[in-house]
Amino acid sequence: MAIHKIKFFAGRGSRYLAEKIVASYGTKLGESEVLNFSDGEFQPCFLESIRGCTVFVIQSTFPPTDNLMELLMMIDAAKRASAHQVIAVMPYFGWARQDRKDRPRVPIGAKLVANLLVAAGVDRIMTMDLHADQIQGFFDVPVDALYASGIFVPYIQSLNIEDLSIAAPDMGGAKRANTYAKYLHTPIIISHKERAKANVVGKMTAIGDVEGRNIIIVDDMIDTAGTICMAADMLMKKGAKSVRAAITHPVLSGSAYDKINDSALQEVIVTDTIPLREGEDLRKFTVLSVADIFADVVERVHNYKEISSIFFK
């Protein structure tokens, strides 16, 4: 089976991570540039031939929307430059929370993004910890949905925490929390919340034994930090010894950093799928890189090897 030459390129929003991925893979990023127009338009351009190559375009689609548009245009440019295959490496898949119609007359944003990627010509998607597993079904191309548990579980084990329990911040996160609890051989706690409105939690309680436990809350993303901080404070009031959080995607909008630093959270473990905001107080944050996982999966996909065995799921 012929193996086509592989080339990596990065969007501007994820160049910091792309450089780590290609270093782990043992190569370097391809040359590209973006021409900016005075009205806000931009035009990506590959500065080297990619004809017949398998092209990996690395770009998370966190805000602003320019990151998504740049990814789409780079995919289109690669297809028009006769790339053999174009694979989008999206460590963070934006709009993933819009995976269904949760009220009348709203879009399904995740499905729209999937349609846009396929229309642009993508042949495969690589992403991590999708907000909802069913998003894979929105695509008619292969989707490699990776798991941050592959780096979180070893780190948590290295802490040697006694009386450890894993917690889900809401009922929707119970499956993820159960996976961590299974591998770490710990009890599970589920926080039950009632939202007053989007991004605002009304009240919260815990299901499970909290008193005397060192608790780690696991989730796929942290946005305003309202839920996670409320859960941490609630768990401490119920007798927990300590509360940490292991969150894959640090969206951290608005005053999220201040909320975390003012909360009962002892440590917030995140990945580098989204860069932390410069100038913020990061004393509670531990950042683990996903670069090695993505580099390993890229090598396996490119050489037609299986990937399922390397993940905690």
What is the CATH topology classification name of the largest domain?
Rossmann fold
Number of strands: 14
**General form:** globular
Tell me which CATH architecture of the largest domain applies here.
Answer: 3-Layer(aba) Sandwich
> Which strands sit side by side, in order, in the main sheet?
10-9-8-11-12-13-14
Helical run tally: 8
* Major sheet size, sense and barrel closure: 7 strands, mixed
Name of the level-1 CATH class of the largest domain: Alpha Beta
Helical percentage: 25-40%
Q: What is the CA-based Rg, rounded?
A: 20 Å
How much of the sequence lies in strands comes to 25-35%
Low-confidence stretches: none
Determine the structural class based on helices, strands and strand pairing: alpha/beta
How far apart, in Å, are the first and last alpha carbons?
30 Å
**Average pLDDT metric:** 94
> How do the helices and strands follow one another from N- to C-terminus?
EHEEEHEHEEHEHEEEHEHEEH
Domain unit count = 2
Q: Please, what is the oligomeric state?
A: single chain
Keywords: ATP-binding, Cytoplasm, Kinase, Magnesium, Metal-binding, Nucleotide biosynthesis, Nucleotide-binding, Transferase
EC number: 2.7.6.1
Pfam family, one: Pribosyl_synth
InterPro entries: PRib_PP_synth_CS (IPR000842), Pribosyltran_N (IPR029099), PRTase-like (IPR029057), PRTase_dom (IPR000836), Rib-P_diPkinase (IPR005946)
